[in-house]
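Summary for the steering committee. The consortium agreed at its last meeting that each partner would contribute one worked example illustrating the joint modelling workflow. Our contribution is presented below. We chose a case with several input lines so that the handling of multiple components could be demonstrated. No manual editing was applied between input and output; the record is shown as generated.
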Amino acid sequence: MTRIDYYHQADAPKANSLVPGASAIVADNEGRILLQRRSDNGRWALPGGVMDIGESIAQAIAREVQEETGLTVEPERIVGVYTDPGHVFAYNDGEVRQQFSICFACRIVGGDLRPSRESIQVKFFPAAEIDGLNVHPSIRLRIEDYLKGKPGAFIR
Amino acid sequence: MTRIDYYHQADAPKANSLVPGASAIVADNEGRILLQRRSDNGRWALPGGVMDIGESIAQAIAREVQEETGLTVEPERIVGVYTDPGHVFAYNDGEVRQQFSICFACRIVGGDLRPSRESIQVKFFPAAEIDGLNVHPSIRLRIEDYLKGKPGAFIR
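What follows is the complete predicted structure of the assembly.
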């Protein structure tokens, strides 16, 4: 499945789908933030994904982080909700999905860091180093919101 | 369209749908909380509803509160996220939707309180009076979480 991101682009196709998902800010003891390098586009991103029917959002984010990075986490608080209608993802089966992600600050409870099929690299970065990485603006916004330290304040 | 709520019931049908929605805590200057009496089941509930493709979640909650109560509001902070897989809504077209609601504390910026087709009564209640009303436990939980005053802390 290929995916093309459109971010405030005039040629974006019209969204026809809305799927709730979650993204995770996982920080280590030194405050460095966990990023994964996506195998589909080579960009650095937060771990995360969409929720399955039958699970809670807490289960969804723990499952996605475990699958993508090997770490076991628990969501501790909500950073914000990201639902920008100007950001859509076009899949090659005709689905055009609008952005919908709840971002959670998570705490590590176990596991061992390792990459996965979806993530070719997984690494903790000091916030200042993230500025120089290839990160989508929608992901950068979530990291900036997290660093402001105001849980539940960001309704995007 | 009829809707049957199943809340941790052994005879609940299996969910086949997940639709992101929002609910609003709207308080007046005296801290009383706005409830609407639903026309479909007669219970008192928070205003809210599901998001439309093409709008942001902030637009969705403002639209729903306006439609149901006449008030114009802006979401100020996130109370919590409510995604209990044990709570499903069965519709008579075969859809069985799992609970998915983000609850927002909202501020009133205009409008005039009035009921609607979906809400036969709309009224502000002191928190203590809500205990005695016919309110679904899933809605009561959101009000209790709001009253704890910890934005972004509730991941349900």
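Residues 57-69 of chain A form the longest helix (13 residues). The interface with chain B takes residues 14-20, 51, 53-58, 75, 77-81, 83-85, 98, 100, 102, 104, 150-156 of chain A (CB under 8 Å).
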